[in-house]
Write a structure and sequence with these properties.
The chain has 266 residues and is mainly α. It is built from 12 helices and no strands. It has helices spanning 2-29, 39-74, 79-82, 87-111, 113-123, 138-155, 159-177, 184-190, 197-203, 208-211, 221-226, 253-258. Helix 2 runs parallel beside helix 6 (138-155), helix 4 crosses helix 5 and helix 4 (87-111) runs antiparallel to helix 6. The longest helix has 36 residues, at 39-74. It is globular, with a radius of gyration of 18 Å.
Length: 266
Amino acid sequence: MSLEWETLEMLKLPVYLGGVLLFLLIELAYSYRRPTVSKARRWLANLPLAMVNGVVYILIFGGAIAGLMLLAQEQNLGLLNAIAMPYWLKLVAGVLILDFFIWLWHLLNHQVPLLWRFHRVHHSDMNMDVSTASRFHLGEILLSGLVRLAVIYTFGIPLVAYLLFEILVNLSIQFHHSSLRISPVFEKIWVLLLVPPFLHRIHHSVKIKERDTNYGVIFSIWDRFFGTLLTRVEQEGIVIGIGSHRDFNRLGFFRLLAMPFTRYTP
């Protein structure tokens, strides 16, 4: 386990940065649509958010998450440690459990007004590309860290499963936020289990009835099972963003940090 953990830990940052570069290059060559606002100015807001979030999250939760998982394993805490199963099955179960709870957390971020105050920073991006995958308010990141700690403790998620999940999550959100022109046939197959860009594009629509669907991060199965999957939307007509924040000049880095503490908007 130690070797697997060290290998995955070393892969996290290169995979994340490699994903950003890869999807950016594909976007530039095969973009789904022309940007309606400055890509450079958007990145000047999105990337600083990503850097601040990453540093603070690691400082606060990095050691706590690893320590909690090792403690759970040593003392057989959590559901997965209480059930006899092959190690590979425990890894699969750990990834599925984490993905389900991030789906549930995502849904709550849309349905609970206090959580939406923070999550609307992500949805206020007026175009979608790979940088949108990193556009989150620090408050949301810290709250999500507490949720992950609770899930890890309750279910006894193995450390390797968690690191594998983080790598898959990063690649998945980079992929389905990217402005990529992809074969419709490929997307129709991909959506049977996973989340393609067309599905998440619907989720970023200004129309609330469309926005409050498609909460999946890695897998689309949770939306399919709980009835929140929406696929039949004319893609060319989707307007990205939220209706209350259409002034691009008011969506800079510092404005985004202050957004949760300004007037609430649905």
